[in-house]
Write a structure and sequence with these properties.
Radius of gyration: 16 Å
Number of strands: 7
CATH superfamily: P-loop containing nucleotide triphosphate hydrolases
Number of domains: 1
Oligomer: single chain
CATH class: Alpha Beta
Structural class: alpha/beta
Order of helices and strands: EHEHHHEHEHEEHHEH
Bound molecules: adenosine monophosphate
Number of helices: 9
Distance between the termini: 9 Å
């Protein structure tokens, strides 16, 4: 299966993508995760991307498209993939379309994860991340770590993502509305859109997504 997860920041794309990736045995590819790894490793790409990310803006299309194209060369995407956080602009969507067409591949479905705004704010302000393994937690939902402030997997003290402060969150939501929300229509017109209301327990939402794409 070749899937895209669309949805505002904090809609839970990463959480559902990680779980569905395990169930289906296909990689979940998060451009946000790849960018954060580059920032951490201080690569040339990371140095360029950092300022955009810190202020909640999108990293320029050419950088992100090149990064995604490179990731799509890997062996593991042959079985399929879930894209989480890409595409975010019409130019990225067109570039992805061309990339797939070159390989005579097509998308299976685009999942639009729908969450009310008040839930999104609650989730984003409660989000915590493990800087060692990238695992996500949330102190405002039932995704709390077993021990307060520590990663369940490796015990590392959890951090708040540098772009999860209130001002940047507001900026990211606005960027979503102005630049990314148009992709809902884009993929609806292509007949690929499956909207899934994502409020409730995580396993039920993952099952609903699976049913919508299956
Ligand atoms: P995320 O983890 O998906 O919320 O992404 C975190 C940040 O990385 C975003 O606010 C952007 O600055 C950047 N980013 C991630 N994916 C993309 C993309 N497809 N296009 C542009 N910027 C991106």
């Amino acid at each position: 299966m070749r899937l895209i997860f669309l949805g505002a920041p904090g809609a839970g794309k990463g959480t559902y993508a990680a779980q569905l990736s395990q169930k289906l045995g296909i990689p979940a590819i998060s451009t946000g995760d790849i960018l954060r790894a580059n920032v951490k490793a201080e690569t040339a790409l990371g140095r360029e991307a950092r300022a955009f990310m810190d202020r909640g803006a999108l990293v320029p299309d050419d950088l992100v498209i090149r990064m995604l194209a490179e990731r799509m060369q890997a062996e593991d995407v042959r079985r399929g993939f879930i894209l989480d956080g890409f595409p975010r602009t019409l130019a990225q969507a067109d570039a992805l379309g061309r990339l797939l067409q070159e390989r005579s591949l097509s998308l299976t479905a685009v999942v639009n994860i729908e969450v009310p705004n008040d839930v999104i704010i609650r989730r984003l302000t409660g989000r915590r991340m493990c800087p060692t393994c990238g695992a996500n937690y949330n102190v405002n939902t039932n995704l709390k770590p077993k021990t307060d402030g520590l990663c369940d997997r490796d015990g590392t003290p959890l951090i708040i993502r540098s772009d999860d402060n209130e001002e940047t969150i507001r900026q990211r939501l606005q960027v979503y509305e102005t630049q990314t929300a148009a992709l809902v229509e884009y993929y609806r017109n292509a007949g690929l859109l499956r909207s899934v209301p994502a409020v409730g327990q995580i396993p039920e939402i993952v099952a609903a997504i699976q049913a919508a794409v299956g």
